[in-house]
Structures are given as structure tokens and as C-alpha cells.
Design goal:
The chain is an alpha/beta fold. It is about 50% helix and about 15% strand.
Length: about 260
């Protein structure tokens, strides 16, 4: 049975507040947490009077990415492609949500959780925010649209640097590249994001909808095409000999011997 407390939902008037709620794990995302996110996003699609969403994290971090204790864990007998595309169906809700999403980023913002934050309308960073795309170091590829969105924001050089090295990008660098639009002290992060959300909520609803339609028509199709491609490439990676060799080498505590296939 799915727990309802891995992500919580509350309302402040016309603003919904989604809170990642595994603070003891720096809000690392597991299968249960993913399912809860998709469930809540589906609920928000049908919430009357909703004007903006704030997505934040309890504890010290927004999310430290995928819970490594659940890597490769499947509850159903499905192919890699089916498993990935099922997650992508949930991800598509970021594009169809009928109001803006403001992501409040602090502490660790890693991997797929970073990519999902990139699909939001606005990202506000606390001074502690540390962003990473470490997937390649784990033998897989970023597969939630982050590559395309970062490419749109900052170009080929930054996304290649982050993905191929897995290095950390702090809040100030993220601001310089336009990945976040503001940096505030951590203790002001929630307050600032809620103020922004209510400011958006006070604007004419139809006008906001039409602006997001215009922006989305420009920005979202390339990202959605990238997500479709990522499902295929990730499936190929999972089936590759190099990925199997990486896992075997780590289990045996030795250097891997890759064959490029």
C-alpha cells in the first residue's frame, strides 16, 4: 500500500504546496515517492481555483536524487522501456499542469529530481543549493528532460560539463547561467517562493494561462522529444555490456573493463 506522507500536499488559498517528505534521506526519491508525486499532480490538474504550485522539500535538501537502495528495483515484470515510459507518463504532467510551478531548491538537488525541477516554470534557490547530474558516473544517462532544458537555458557547454563530469553546480553559478532566477538565504526560501506564488495568483488567470501557452509552445516540444529519445537510449544502456560490467566491477571492487557496447 502506498504511503501518503512521502510527499505532502497543503493549500494556502489558491496556492498548492507540495513538500518532499523523506528528510532523513535528504528526500531521495523512491518508487513510492514517484507514485505519490504523479498522484498529487493528477489531483492538482482538477483542483478548481488553483493558481500556482510551490514544490519544496522538508529538511535540509530539496532532493538528493534517486534512492540508491532502490536502483533497478521493479515491482512488476515489465521491460526496461515500459518501466521508463511509465515514469515519463508521470513526468508529462509537468507540461500539462494548468498553472505555474515554483520550485524551491535547497541543499542537494540531484539527478532526476534536478531534472524535474528544471521542468517547472520558476526555480528559486537557497544559498545552500548544490545541483548535480551524476547519472553518467553511475553508467546511465539523464532521462527526465533535464538535458534538453539545460541546453535551452545555458547551452551545450554547461550541460556537457555537468553530465559528463558529475560535478556540483552551486546556487550562484546556477544563477549566472539562468538555471535559477533568484538566490535567497535558506531561511527566506519558503517565504520568498510563497510570495512569488501569491503574486502570480493575483494576476488575471486567463492571461497567465495564455502566457504559459505561448512559452510552452516554444520551449516544451524539444524537451518532450528529448524525453522520448531518452527512454530508448536508457533502455539500450540498461541492456549494454558496459553497464553490466560497471555493476560487476563495483560488486567485485575492481576496475571495470569497458568494450564500448
Amino acid at each position: 500500500m502506498m504511503s501518503s506522507d512521502t510527499i505532502t500536499l497543503e493549500y494556502d488559498g489558491p496556492v498548492a504546496i507540495l513538500s518532499n517528505n523523506r528528510p532523513d534521506r535528504h528526500n531521495a526519491a523512491n518508487n513510492e515517492m514517484d507514485a505519490r508525486l504523479w498522484e498529487l499532480l493528477g489531483e492538482l490538474h482538477h483542483k478548481e481555483g488553483l493558481r500556482c504550485v510551490v514544490w519544496r522539500g522538508n529538511g535540509k535538501s530539496f532532493s538528493s536524487g534517486r534512492d540508491t537502495s532502490e536502483l533497478g528495483v521493479r515491482t512488476e515484470d515489465v521491460t526496461d522501456l515500459e518501466f521508463i515510459e511509465r515514469g515519463h507518463a508521470g513526468t508529462q504532467q509537468f507540461f500539462s499542469l494548468p498553472c505555474p510551478i515554483v520550485a524551491a531548491l535547497k541543499g542537494w538537488v540531484i539527478g532526476g529530481s534536478f531534472e524535474r525541477a528544471l521542468l517547472c516554470d520558476l526555480r528559486i534557490a537557497g544559498e545552500s543549493a548544490k545541483m548535480r547530474l551524476p547519472e553518467v558516473l553511475h553508467g546511465v544517462v539523464p532521462d527526465s528532460g533535464g538535458t534538453a532544458r539545460l541546453f535551452q537555458m545555458a547551452g551545450h557547454g554547461l550541460v556537457a560539463d555537468l553530465a559528463l563530469t558529475g560535478r556540483i553546480m552551486d546556487a550562484r553559478e546556477a544563477l549566472a547561467h539562468g538555471v535559477v532566477s533568484r538566490v535567497v538565504p535558506d531561511e527566506k526560501l519558503d517565504e520568498t517562493c510563497l510570495e512569488i506564488a501569491h503574486q502570480i495568483a493575483k494576476a488575471p488567470a486567463f492571461t497567465v494561462k495564455m502566457f504559459r501557452r505561448t512559452l510552452g509552445r516554444m520551449a516544451n516540444p524539444p524537451v518532450q522529444r528529448s524525453i522520448e529519445e531518452e527512454a530508448v537510449t536508457q533502455s539500450m544502456v540498461f541492456a549494454s555490456r558496459d553497464y553490466a560490467e560497471l555493476k560487476a566491477a563495483r560488486a567485485e571492487q575492481r576496475e571495470p573493463k569497458y568494450r564500448g557496447r
